[in-house]
Amino acid sequence: MKQEQPRVAIQGIRASFHEEAAFKYFGENIQTIECNSFKQTFEALQNKDADYVVMAIENSIAGSILPNYSLLLSYAFPVVGEIYLPIQLHLMALPGVKFEDIKYVTSHPIAIRQCVDFFDEYPHLQIVESSDTAACAKRIRDEQLTDTVAIANTLAARLYGLDVLERRIESNKKNFTRFLILTHHDNMVKRQPNKASLCFQVSNKVGSLAKVLNIFADEGVNMSKIQSMPILGKRNEYNFYVDIEWEEPKQYDNAIRQILKYTHNFNILGEYERHDEDSAVPKVIKTERIPRTYINIKKIGS
Question: pTM of the prediction?
Answer without folding.
Answer: 0.88
